[in-house]
Design goal:
This protein has 338 residues and is of the alpha+beta class. It has two domains: 155 residues, 2-Layer Sandwich (Nucleotidyltransferase, domain 5); 166 residues, Nucleotidyltransferase, domain 5 (2-Layer Sandwich). It is built from ten helices and 19 strands. The strands form five sheets. A six-stranded mixed β-sheet has the order 3-2-1-9-10-19, sandwiched between helices. Helix 4 packs across helix 10, helix 5 crosses helix 6 and helix 5 runs antiparallel to helix 7. The two termini are 22 Å apart. It binds adenosine-5'-triphosphate and magnesium ion (MG). The site of magnesium ion has 6 residues, from loops. Its main location: cytoplasm. One of its GO terms (molecular function) is ATP binding. Forms polymers. This is Cell shape-determining protein MreB.
Length: 338
């Protein structure tokens, strides 16, 4: 690799791109605002997300990825076209002049791989590599991924939860569940609707989630102000909901995390088990910021639980670093156009 290399993480909630100088060059929501009448993308990223649930009928705000994978190919292509424009404004280079390394979720199917490949090749990309996202996350989290020891990473995103055991530059075992933070937002909105007869958007539900704790009894006195629409009167309404109301929804989220972590730990080779007990697991991804999560996980699996230094960025940072370690990494491959 001699040219400029960039590492790309196309997440369900956020796209992050790092240059090989370990510099973040793009980090924005995976969202676009689209005018259905004019068939035109109006905004992407933060600007588009700002518009969610505030636009007239012909303008829709879309998240083209769901559960960690592309749900809407055409909109993802249009989004990535705009992203390329932003990246080249910063770097002075087009995608076709760069080496691109793109993170994939563990267990991505051939169809999912092809979808991302097709999008990038249609944007003129000449040099493309895929790396397993959780291998990238261990690198970006600063773990000794190249050593023959157990590095366990738990990535809790918006669309999926993945856990991998990385040793000697490759993934030994991994597990993924395609339900994560977004699902918790939906569950929160559902509860408010069913129990309080108030309709709230997913943006509002997400903001409620940010104020919660894994164990709401620890914040029992806390109540959360929620704005929505009263389903009985049809008028806007503000309600106060005790944080403890959401414990069941949080428990579902925690149960999902635990099942993914457990299935990775259970399939680890016994030679690495002692190692895991000593070095523990590292949390990354925005979902790991739910308050109390590392203490809760520690209480469940009884091994040390660490937080990655920059949970939103571990995957993109590691992906951008991979170009320097090509000969030491297992789960990275060069991709050619179909
Ligand atoms: N303080 C917080 N508490 C709980 N969740 C949070 C917090 N801050 C962010 N999140 C959640 O983190 C998620 C976004 O994290 P991230 O950017 O790592 O996801 P992603 O990489 O886009 O998704 P995926 O990897 O699943 O495709 C969202 O669900 C968001 O609500
Ligand atoms: Mg992610």
């Amino acid at each position: 690799m001699g040219k400029v290399t960039i590492g790309i993480d196309i997440g369900t909630a956020n796209i992050s791109i790092y240059s090989d100088m370990e510099k973040m060059i793009f980090h924005e929501p995976t969202v676009l605002a689209y005018d259905t009448k004019k068939d035109k993308v109006l905004e992407i990223g933060h600007e588009a997300k700002e518009l969610a649930e505030k636009t007239p009928g012909s303008i829709v705000v879309l998240s083209p990825l769901q559960g960690g994978i592309i749900a809407d190919f055409d909109m993802t292509l249009r989004l990535m076209k705009k992203v390329e424009g932003r990246v080249s404004a910063v770097t002075g280079k087009r995608f076709k002049q760069m080496d691109l390394i793109v993170a994939l979720l563990p267990g991505a199917t051939n169809i999912e791989r092809q979808a991302i490949g097709d999008i990038l090749f249609s944007l003129g990309v000449k040099s493309l590599y895929f790396i397993e996202g959780s291998l990238a996350a261990t690198m970006g989290a600063g773990l000794p991924f190249e050593k023959p020891i157990a590095n366990v990473i738990v990535d809790i995103g918006a669309g999926k939860i993945s856990t991998s055991l990385v040793s000697y530059g490759g993934i030994v075992t991994s597990a993924t569940l395609r339900k994560s933070g977004d699902e918790l937002d939906r569950d929160i909105a559902q509860l408010v609707r069913n129990k309080y007869n108030v309709l709230i958007g997913l943006e509002t539900a997400e903001q409620v989630k940010w104020q919660l704790h894994c164990d709401t009894s620890l914040v029992a006195e806390k109540s959360i102000e929620i704005e929505g629409r009263d389903l009985v009167t049809g008028f806007p309404i503000t309600i106060e909901v005790p944080a403890t109301e959401f414990q069941e929804e949080i428990d579902e989220f925690l149960k999902r995390i635990l099942s993914v972590v457990q299935s990775t730990l259970e399939t680890s080779p016994p030679e690495l088990s002692g190692n895991i007990r000593a070095s523990g697991v590292t949390l990354t991804g925005g979902g790991s910021l739910l308050e109390g999560l590392s203490d809760w996980l520690h209480s469940q699996i009884m091994v040390p639980v660490h937080m990655a230094p920059a949970p939103f960025e571990s995957v993109a940072l590691g992906t951008s670093m991979a170009g320097e370690h090509l000969d030491r990494l297992i789960n990275i491959e060069k991709v050619t156009a179909r």
